[in-house]
Amino acid sequence: MPVHRLIIIGGKGGVGRTTVAVALGLALARRGHRTLVAHVRARPPLAELYGCERIDEEIRAVGPDLWAVNMDPQASIREMGLLVLRFRALYHLVLENRLVRSFLRAVPALEEYSMVGKAWYHTTEQRSDGRARFQTVIFDGPATGHLVSMLRIPQVILDAVPEGPLTGDARRARELLADPERTAMWLVTLAEEMAVSEAADLHRAARDELQLRVDRLLVNALYPADLTQSAALDQVLRQATPSAESGLDLALRATRLLRERRAINDHYLKELAQRLPLRRTELPMLFAPRFDRAALEPLVTLLGAALEAPQAPAPAVPA
Ligand SMILES: Nc1ncnc2c1ncn2[C@@H]1O[C@H](COP(=O)(O)OP(=O)(O)OP(=O)(O)O)[C@@H](O)[C@H]1O
Ligand SMILES: [Mg+2]
Description:
Layout: E1 6-11, H1 17-30, E2 35-40, H2 46-50, E3 60-63, E4 66-71, H3 73-85, H4 88-95, H5 98-105, H6 108-124, E5 136-140, H7 144-160, H8 165-178, E6 183-190, H9 193-208, E7 214-222, H10 231-239, H11 248-275, E8 280-284, H12 297-308
Parallel strand pairs: 1-5, 1-6, 2-4, 2-5, 6-7, 7-8
Antiparallel strand pairs: 3-4
Helix pairs in contact: 1-12, 3-4, 3-6, 6-7, 6-8, 7-8
């Protein structure tokens, strides 16, 4: 199971990046792979997904071989400052200075860089026995456009800042991002118009601007296919006599709606095959009353199977 040191989860806002990041973390950890899931400002139900009390800026063990952190730009700046400046006294002198603080707040790119830097740093950490603290860091960052500007920052720093501690770290971060052996993006999308077009944009930016390898396409929240493929169901839908009293009417409407949604999914699955001929994993729409760790189980199983599948080449583009 060859797995990258850094897996960047990309995709449009709301397509399920955070959900997939957690499920992938669970799937890796279950295979004995020490994994850190590093979220950037993920929204509150995060702790529920992991089934623990809270997830915040402190790295926490959330299960065997699994750690999680919800990064906050301000806290990351403080930590990055400590890492770069090494000495706490110097840090206080420089970063706790009121003028410097307001300057840092005025430079959003620096906030973002601190998060890329932190994710990079965690891929390099070692335990006392010399082995990597985390074998893989999963980076659940911002959505498409914002992610691209965030990942450009190491190069921007190298172009703009004179040689010094900042450029050393930026150079190592850029090398890690551009190394297809160590880093890959997993692109999450829905089989829907807007998400597909953003996924295609992000794929292009990753390839052409960031030199970042996109390793896999995850098509999330697909409606069930079996409702559209059953001749028996076709017959029932044609023949059934709706009756509001029996609830049959409601069941028929729900079934028709699900079939319509799946037809849209099928259309965009075909389009994805043409526009993004990547190895792909299809994930079902989950109909769970609440999104906790147990509800994620079908995604954990499918992502685990994807990790174990032989490294097949990407499918050919259909004619
Ligand atoms: N496979 C799925 N089936 C059903 N609901 C899902 C699925 N995946 C994600 N969701 C739901 O979709 C919503 C968005 O998911 P999530 O927060 O993971 O997306 P995101 O891409 O991280 O969003 P954001 O851009 O806000 O960070 C959540 O309510 C989540 O529970
Ligand atoms: Mg999210």
